[in-house]
Amino acid sequence: MHKTPRDIIAKKAAGKKISVITAYDYSLATLCDKAGVDILLVGDSAGMVVLGYENTIPVTMTNMVIFTEAVSRAREQALVVGDLPFMSYQANISDAIKNSGKLIKAGADSVKLAKVTGAKIEINLFYANQKRKKNIVKALRKAGAREVLGTNSKSARRISGLDSARRVVDYNGIYKADVVVVPLEDGDRTIALKKAGKKVITIDLNPLPRTAKTADITIVDNVVRAINKLILECKSKKIRKTPFNNKKNLSACVLEIKKNLSRRMLHA
Length: 268
What we know:
Order of helices and strands: HEHEHHEHHEHEEEEHEHEHH
Helix content: 40-55%
Strand order of the largest sheet: 1-2-3
Low-confidence stretches: 105-109
Mean pLDDT: 82
Number of helices: 11
CATH topology of the largest domain: Rossmann fold
Strand content: 5-15%
Structural class: alpha/beta
Shape: globular
Distance between the termini: 37 Å
CATH architecture of the largest domain: 3-Layer(aba) Sandwich
CATH superfamily of the largest domain: Phosphopantoate/pantothenate synthetase
Radius of gyration: 20 Å
Number of strands: 10
């Protein structure tokens, strides 16, 4: 039985060291797994190390699926973590769900989060059309979602402060909600939701944009990894109400990024 994210979190909580190594092929992954490595990271750096590219930008989802499958076949006890390559998830949530599913064979993290918290899922796009909405609904329902809001014109309402399709929201979803999760960077949307009296939770790799600074809670992380962690936290019985200062949170994240870059420079 291989390790799960919960096992890794528990090990960290216990103050134990966690071993991580990058692997792209069956042979190396087998050796590392038998050596007891906790996490096998299938990084998009394979583009440079294996494929000879100058950087990671040309790496495709097809490339990453092949590398991830090879490593997964080798592992018996390690947790396999696969990178989503450049522009495989940034454009829209549909791409994020579809491509995450290709790597982990279960692109249902957002649906799981909704089920655990009792929250509703709504499609709210910058560039909206019926075809895109239908594709997203199809992907979410395939992942297990029973109800997907944002497609019924009869329940459509408008949020002031936005001039794109994002201003159209569902009355039974974002319009009535007290708390809204904005999973991708969108400063205008976040500001508009705040003015409408909503509490906003956002996920952003960068702690400096308007989205991160405007939200009530900013999770500085990769969206796929962050949602999975949220699921685990929401399932935990240790959750309790505590004061949260997002400015201090962002300042701490900036310092952590600075420290990490400094460490990397020493080995550059």
